[in-house]
Amino acid sequence: MRIVFYVLVMGVSAVVTFGGSWVIWKLSHKYRLYPKIRARDVHTRPTPRLGGVAIFLGVLVAFGVGSLLPPLALIFREPLQVPAVLGAALLIVVIGVIDDIWDLDWFTKLAGQILAAGLLAWQGVQIGWIPFPGGLASLSSYQSLALTIFVVVLVMNAVNFVDGLDGLVAGVALIASGAFFIYGYVISYGPTEQSDYFNLAQFITAALIGGCIGFLPFNWRRSDDRPARLFMGDGGALLVGLLMATSTVALAGQIAPESLTATRALPTLIPVILPLAVLIVPLADFTLAVLRRLRAGKSPFTADRKHLHHRLLDMGHSHAHAVMIFYGWTAVASGGMLLFLLPEHGLVIGGLVMLVGFLVCAIITLAPLSRRKAIEAAVQSAPAGLAADAGVAAFDPLDAAAAAADGAAHTDAEAARALERLHEKEASS
């Protein structure tokens, strides 16, 4: 019945976040608290960006309720860790909200992120050791502080960089945090016997899951003409990244390094591997963005329209398809890692699931390219007059009509309708 208390925490966070999102959405429209549309934005109408405030309120109230429940008292036994987590979260949300409204320079935002991560590490939420082949290395206090700050800032920015489509960050965080929560719950008195059921990492993850559930109804794209009503903004994306990184560091910190024997190495190292697996897409996007901008002689934090979600849209995926592709990659990575915990052949089963899952995800991701080539070949082989009558000349990159379209990307549905019109014209001619 221990999980009931975590479900209660999730429910409180979800309800408060949902109610806060509704209030913020109303107030933002009443007082015009939304920025102008930028060139790199995917949405076409001004949308409030203060959803991160609602998520923070949900997490804050969840902590308050949790502190009143005797079974969760173990979480609050360290008097300064919880205030450090909430203080770092508040700092990140304030910086993000200011940036969402007035646009801060990258140096100020980075300094705030380092300060928030440093506050966590200062109060004991830090990485004390790192694994390497054949053993592990214990870190000094200064090394632990530096590595913790680096990891927390890295995850925050990776999550923030990928926040560009309706429901993307909230959904990815929900899947990843769900997998991490299951892992943390399973290993409690499980294969590693390292932690209690009630710990800070599990509590943070439960509160974050609830926050994402409560926020998603306002951030979900119901149709092309009914987009998200509220964005989480930089404040929300950075907060989600902060809480994901904090829960990971906190859980890894509860694992006794001396338990890392040959027979127990895999389950005990999952706290280190799992975050990398479930954040594979955001981390890949972050790495590519930094390298791309440095190669161009720009700041790594300079905004552009070349993120992975932009490229999926340019390939021809619809908005919903692009979001689901991110969900798929995240679910395969996190699910495969969880299967490693199976007592019998877990490594083999998890590896096979990840291999097949990644292959399917890759095929779905690249599918528009093959469809685009098919329509291009069909248009190019058709008589020019027939292609013009069918209105499909824009799908021929060698045709003047395609150049006039200024490189506009076509969705799968548009390409399918174009090919159907061409076949109908060919059949009737």
Tally of DSSP β-strands = 2
* Total count of helical runs of at least 4 residues: 16
- Helical content class: 55-70%
Radius of gyration: 24 Å
The largest sheet, given as strand count, sense and whether it forms a barrel, is:
2 strands, antiparallel
Oligomerization status of the protein chains: single chain
Instruction: Supply the number of structural domains.
Output: 2
Low-confidence stretches: 191-195, 400-407
N-end to C-end Cα span: 71 Å
Question: Strand sequence of the main sheet, in spatial order?
Answer: 1-2
Strand content: under 5%
Class computed from helices, strands and strand pairing: mainly alpha
| Average pLDDT | 81
Taken in chain order, the helices and strands follow as HHHHEEHHHHHHHHHHHH
What is the overall shape? globular
Descriptive keywords:
429 residues; mainly alpha; two-stranded antiparallel ribbon; 2% strand
Structure, described:
With 429 residues, this protein is mostly helical. The protein folds into two domains: 2-284, no CATH class; 307-429, no CATH class. 68% of the residues lie in helices and 2% in strands. Strands 1-2 form a two-stranded antiparallel ribbon.
